[in-house]
From TrEMBL, chain A:
Nucleotide-binding as UniProt keyword: no
This protein's name: AP-4 complex subunit sigma-1
A GO term from the CC aspect: cytoplasm
Gene3D superfamilies: 3.30.450.60
Organism listed in the record: Pan troglodytes (Chimpanzee)
Automatic annotation (TrEMBL), chain B:
Listed SUPFAM superfamilies: ARM repeat
Location within or outside the cell: Golgi apparatus, trans-Golgi network membrane
Keyword Phosphoprotein: yes
Phylogenetic lineage: Eukaryota, Metazoa, Chordata, Craniata, Vertebrata
Region annotated Disordered, chain positions: 717-736
Primary location recorded for the protein, binned into one broad class: Golgi
Subunit note: Adaptor protein complex 4 (AP-4) is a heterotetramer composed of two large adaptins, a medium adaptin and a small adaptin.
Protein name: AP-4 complex subunit epsilon
Length: 149, 1137
């Protein structure tokens, strides 16, 4: 089960957060800081899975942006790892400029994800209309995945 | 069709956005509402956290003003919501906007509604009170004719919905399962999945509809239903075995690329769907050969297909390997899976390596040789730069630890422990080390030192069980008394040296352990006098860094030692110091010590040496206070009423109008008895009893109910367990095998060494020490003796009994020294009972021997002789028990006679009790076994009838049932048949009793027989039992019903829709009576009372009332799980008929 989905940049600013289990708002900030700290401390030679407290973090870095997914112990790490990439591909497909790595990236991503956030249909339909992008029916996201249903 | 809908939906947001300049998704960025845009830009431009905070607070206060202003339009509100969401995401409280989000969802047009719903799902949580306000909106939208609105409502339901309001929307969502648009069906399934997660009971009756969803022609709907199935199968796999075929077919289609191409991800067909299916198959095939056989083909194909070099295929492979190893094994598949693991482990990619290690950890217990194959990689990973990899490796090593490699593995773990700082890691690892040390410690010194390391590193964060278990282990000791003493002595010595060191700080828990051990076992020291130990403890006591809890432990230790010391100035100084302490707890301890110190005799009897393990006998009825109570009562004091009674009385006085049925009428009748002046309250009743019996028996404590584990000579069951130990302690030949393997390994190593560098050599050495004993263990497994590894510190059965008891028992140990004066009296009683004790023990011995004889009772003559001998030798003690002892031989003698009448007696029984139809559970060419259940009044009688189909005679056919967790299975006489004639049928019967409530259970067993004289065969079978098998009617009167009703705390209410055929109450109740074996007590108008009991005697009451076609069910029981379960069954019955 996925516990949360985060997009945080290197400066520790949260770009997108979605919690599937209720976390108190004060604890969220703390959690996000710790999560980004542990992601930043890792090098390329180290694996993309971190054990953090009683759950696992799976992260992927796109330029200066980290996408981090917190899962419990039963999840298949590699599947989540690829799922993140799928998510980014969908973003890329929908907002044709999402892969640009300039400064406006963050704004774009935010807007983009915001759209995803607000529109449960777009992503899905985007995957339908545009062949090649997999339908994001990934299971673990289900209890209330925002954009991916 | 679906595509058209999807496209319309895609176009929708575009349409809305077209109002603004531009259009289409790409333009959305440009036209994005400027306010949010500028907020985001503003925040990004800021450099410090402080500035950000200021900006957001400013933003929030302006938002607050806007949302509460009456002039704000919905469109502006939508815009505000967006900004609120952003602020809250950054961690600033925006709770003032919650209510407006709900309003927006209620009132807005499509786009505004959507933003409203989104904001609600992000802001609120399941139990938030505002969520209730959303229910109406959701209901309205679900009934809307606009597809988009329906979808939005379904989406929000699947994200967040109040549990208690599920019945309000459930029928609407159920209807949506038949909707013509697949997107609606899919969302409906997901909403039901959500319900299943938060309230499984409420959707149980629509399980059949999930099956329809599984067969849906749309892949999305099918995929959604898999989530529900995965969850349900995880809870109870036996109920869904029939679906295995469907899952296999689905997976075959997915793997074969039969899905639309849009489901491909990097040209892999629906990878996440595959993973989901593989997980389901793994759960279904676990320990089930028949089901597993169905899936071998498709697993093989998945392994073969997933050879593409892409991350996502590795994810599938990993899941495949996991499934292959969790189902009933097939050697070919295992081989392939092992190869896959090898590929992972050897991969240079770090993520794959991690997966490989994880997979190894899963399979290592089944196939230790795999670890041998990859030992060098594992060694490399152990020194990997990445701590995560290291930790995964340690986890792997933890699984392969045995008596030979324990020291190396624990050393590695300790090394890691010293480096890590994260609390969770420490707690986890410390627990593992302690567990391993207890299991496999090679010698005393190592054990104590390892535990010292555990305590000093784990300190105050570790699980409290660890020090408790350790102390218990020391106190209870092992089988060898001198060994125990040495261990204790070593512990004492090592603690004394640790305490000698200056300027070292130990965690409080460690100090507590030390003080307990020193207090109990310092007497083992030869040289050092108790005075010196006391001096050390005193020094600690005066230390400011020691917490007051630890000080209590320390002073307890001092008290224990004082009784051994002759006279000590330190003690006097200590008493002097602490009797004026500000800490009241310490002051009390000091006073106790002072009084005990003045009366040395009392002290010695109160604090005996090395008696920490003996159970304190506590008189729970407090009978020694009876005199005091009687005096109080005679002086006019009110009798004691227990808490719940007082509350009930208070309630009944307060209640003016009672809307609950029976409450009033029964409470008055129920209470008059209790309130009558002469009546003794419930509480005093108990002590009254004990006063009567207590007078007679004060000198011989009541021993019923107190488990007698300890006799004068020590632990009683030891005698029995020893025989077990002896049979288990034959590791000598195995060890030689191990050595052989070790040699083989080292030889192999040596041959490789020639070309390798020195570093490599070291690694090899480490490897051979790590993986020692693994190979031999596999041979043991082959022989079928998995558990022959002899544990150094074999815990006694008592330790295993109850974990919850552990904390309290150690508490007892410390308390033993502080037992109040009254306890001294009990100590005396204890001795007076030892006579009784020894008798008891002897009795046990005899019953043991009788059992032994029974098992080999070939001739009856010597048996009788032996029994007459034992009755002669202890005539007085066995006076009452003679009957029992002679029982077994009688039954064996009679068994032959009984057998012949068995068949006829069955017929009688089956007519007398309800029984199920016979069902075949297993068969082969020679025999077939079918079973049926007879629901007897006091138990469930399982009958297995075995038919010999062959024309040959079968010898010594025997049926055995494996012990099950929740049941007690007793064999009825006549179960082993010496000879079974050709083409005959014989029956075995077992009575099954329930030990603790459960929902679904399995009874497995096997039948074994000999064909001709030569080969023997075995056939396994299993039978499902449900709780329903143990429900019996409870025949009570309406008055009793009322009384019972009030006394039960667990209640469950639910409305059930009745089908038309049973619209009238009597017919509905009749159904319940027939199907669920409930007893109808009374039917009054539109209400009915029913009662049943769960064997042996847990009652459950049911009150039903009919309104139109709704049947309101109200259950109450003393057991918490029973009402839920019965409710589910009732629902099933009512819906099903």
């Amino acid at each position: 089960m996925i516990k949360f989905f985060l997009m945080v940049n290197k400066q520790g600013q949260t770009r997108l957060s979605k919690y599937y289990e209720h976390v108190d708002i004060n604890k969220r900030t703390l959690l996000e800081t710790e999560v980004i700290k542990s992601c930043l401390s890792r090098s390329n030679e180290q694996c993309s899975f971190i054990e953090y407290k009683d759950f696992k973090l799976i992260y992927r870095q796109y330029a200066a942006l980290f996408i981090v997914v917190g899962v419990n112990d039963t999840e298949n790490e590699m599947a989540i790892y690829e799922f993140i990439h799928n998510f980014v591909e969908v973003l890329d497909e929908y907002f044709s400029r999402v892969s640009e790595l300039d400064v406006s990236f963050f704004n774009t991503v935010f807007h983009g994800t915001w759209q995803m956030h607000s529109g449960p249909y777009q992503t899905r339909s985007c995957s339908v209309t545009q062949a090649g992008v997999q339908r994001c029916d990934h299971g673990s996201l289900h209890p209330g995945s925002p954009g991916l249903k | 069709m679906s595509d058209i809908v999807e496209k319309t939906l895609t176009a929708l947001p575009g349409l809305f956005l077209q109002n603004q300049p531009g259009g289409g998704p790409a333009a959305a960025k440009a036209s994005f509402s400027s306010r949010l845009g500028s907020l985001v830009r503003g925040i990004t431009a800021l450099t410090s956290k402080h500035e950000e905070e200021k900006l957001i607070q400013q933003e929030l206060s302006s938002l607050k003003a806007t949302v509460s202003a009456p002039t704000t339009t919905l469109k502006m509100m939508k815009e505000c919501m967006v900004r609120l969401i952003y602020c809250e995401m950054l961690g600033y409280d925006a709770s003032f906007g919650y209510i407006h989000a709900i309003k927006l969802a209620q009132q807005g047009n499509l786009l505004e509604k959507r933003v409203g719903y989104l904001a609600v799902s992000l802001f609120l949580h399941e139990s938030h009170e505002l969520l209730l306000l959303l229910v109406n909106t959701v209901v309205k939208d679900l009934q809307s004719t606009n597809l988009v609105e329906v979808c939005m409502a379904l989406t929000v339901v699947s994200q967040i919905f109040p549990r208690e309001m599920i019945p309000a929307v459930l029928p609407l969502i159920e209807d949506k399962l038949q909707h013509s648009k697949e997107i609606v069906r899919r969302k409906a399934v997901l909403a039901l999945y959500k319900f299943h997660l938060i309230a499984p009971n409420q959707v149980q009756h629509i399980h059949i509809k999930f099956r329809k969803a599984l067969c849906d022609r749309d892949v999305g709907v099918m995929a959604a239903s898999l989530h529900i199935y995965l969850r349900m199968i995880k809870e109870n796999s036996s109920g869904y075995k029939d679906l295995t075929g469907s899952f296999v077919t689905i997976l075959k289609q997915v793997v074969g690329g039969k899905l639309p191409v849009e489901f491909n991800y990097h040209s892999v067909p629906a990878p996440w769907l595959q993973i989901q299916l593989l997980r389901i198959l793994g759960l279904l095939g676990k320990d089930d050969q028949r089901t597993s056989e169905l899936m071998y083909d498709v697993l093989d194909e998945s392994l073969r297909r997933a050879e593409l070099n892409h991350n996502v295929t590795y994810a599938i492979l990993f899941e495949c390997v996991h499934t292959v190893y969790s189902i009933y094994p097939k050697s070919e598949l295992l081989e392939k899976a092992a190869k896959c693991i090898g590929k992972f482990v050897l991969s240079p990619k770090i993520n794959l390596k991690y997966l490989g290690l994880k997979a190894l950890t899963y399979v290592i217990q089944q196939d230790p040789t795999l670890a041998l194959q990859h030992q060098m990689t594992i060694i490399e990973c152990l020194d990997h730069l990445d701590p995560i990899i290291k930790r995964e490796t340690l986890e792997l090593l933890y699984r392969i630890t045995n008596a030979q490699n324990i020291t190396v593995i624990v050393q590695k773990m300790l090394e890691y422990l010293h480096q890590s700082k994260e609390e969770y890691v420490i707690v986890n690892l410390v627990g593992k080390i302690a567990e391993l040390a207890e299991k496999y410690a090679p010698d005393n010194a190592w054990f104590i030192q390892t535990m010292n390391a555990v305590f000093s590193v784990g300190g105050d964060v570790m699980h409290p069980d660890i020090p408790n278990n350790f102390l218990r282990l020391l106190a209870e000791g092992f089988d060898d008394e001198t060994e125990d003493q040495q261990l204790r002595l070593y512990a004492v010595q090592s603690y004394l040296t640790l305490l000698d060191m200056e300027n070292v700080f130990y965690p409080q828990r460690f100090l507590q352990v030390m003080s307990w051990v020193l207090g109990e076992y310092s007497y083992l020291l030869d040289k050092e006098m108790p005075e010196e130990v006391i001096a050390k403890l005193y020094k600690l006591l005066m230390n400011d860094s020691v917490s007051s809890e630890t000080k209590a432990w320390l002073i307890a230790a001092v008290t224990k030692l004082t009784s051994q010391a002759h006279s000590s100035n330190t003690v006097e100084r200590l008493i002097h110091e602490f009797t004026i302490s500000l800490d009241t707890c310490m002051r009390q301890h000091a006073f106790e010590l002072k009084h005990l110190h003045e009366n040395v005799e009392l002290m010695k009897s109160l604090l005996p040496v090395d008696r920490s393990c003996e159970d304190l006998v506590v008189d729970a009825s407090l009978s020694f206070l009876d005199g005091f109570v009687a005096e109080g009562l005679s002086q006019g004091a009110a009798p004691y009423k227990p808490h719940h009674q007082r509350q009930e009385e208070k309630l009944s006085q307060e209640k003016v109008l009672n809307f609950e049925p029976y409450g009033l009428s029964f409470s008055s009748s129920g209470f008059t008895g209790r309130q009558s002046p002469a009546g003794i309250s419930l509480g005093s009743d108990v002590s009254g009893n004990s006063a009567e019996t207590g007078l007679k028996e004060t000198n011989s404590l009541k021993l019923e109910g107190i488990k007698k584990l300890w006799g004068k000579e020590g632990y009683l069951p030891k005698k029995e367990s020893k025989t077990g130990d002896e049979s288990g302690a034959l590791p000598v030949p195995q060890e030689s095998i191990m050595e052989n393997v070790d040699q083989a390994i080292t030889k192999k190593d040596q041959s490789q060494v020639l070309t390798q560098s020195k570093e490599e050599k070291e690694k090899q050495l480490l490897a051979s020490s790590l993986f020692v004993g693994l190979g031999s263990e596999s041979t043991i497994n082959l022989l079928g003796k998995a558990d022959t590894v002899s544990h150094k510190f074999r815990r006694k059965s008592k330790v295993k009994e109850a974990k919850s008891g552990e904390t309290t028992s150690t508490h007892n140990m410390t308390c033993s020294s502080f037992s109040s004066l009254s306890n001294v009296a009990y100590e005396d009683d204890y001795y007076s009972n030892t006579l009784h004790d020894t008798g008891d023990k002897e009795l046990k011995k005899f019953s043991l021997s009788s059992e032994l004889l029974d098992s080999e009772s070939l001739t009856e003559l010597p048996l009788v002789e032996k029994f007459s001998y034992c009755s002669l030798s202890t005539p007085s003690l066995f006076a009452n028990n003679n009957m029992e002892i002679f029982h077994p031989p009688q039954s064996t003698a009679a068994s032959v006679a009984k057998e012949s009448s068995l068949a006829s007696s069955f017929l009688e029984e089956t007519t007398e009790y309800m029984h199920s139809n016979a069902m075949e559970v297993c068969n082969n060419e020679t025999i077939s076994v079918s079973s049926y259940k007879i629901w007897k009044d006091d138990c469930l009688l399982m009958v297995w009838s075995v038919t010999n189909k062959s024309g040959l005679e079968l010898k010594s056919a025997d049926l055995e049932i494996f012990p099950a967790e929740n049941f007690k299975v007793t064999e009825q006489p006549g179960c082993c048949l010496p000879v079974m004639e050709a083409e005959s049928t014989k029956s075995f019967q077992y009575s099954v009793q329930i030990e603790k409530p459960f929902t679904e259970g399995n009874l497995t067993g096997f039948i074994s027989y000999h064909m001709m004289d030569t080969h023997s065969a075995q056939l396994e079978f299993s039978v499902n039992l449900s709780l329903l098998d143990f429900i019996r009617p409870l025949k009570i009167s309406s008055d009793d019903f009322g009384k019972l009703w009030l006394s039960f705390a667990n209640d469950v209410k639910q409305n059930v829709k009745m089908s038309e055929s049973q619209a009238a109450l009597p017919s509905a109740l009749k159904t319940l009576q027939q199907k669920l074996r409930l007893h109808i007590i009374e039917i009054i108008g539109n209400e009915g009372l029913l009662a049943c009991q769960l064997l042996p005697s847990i009652p459950c009451l049911l009150h039903c009332r009919v309104h139109a076609d709704i049947l309101a069910l109200w259950f109450r029981s003393s057991c918490s799980t029973l009402p839920d379960y019965l409710l589910y069954q009732c629902q099933k019955v009512m819906e099903g008929s």
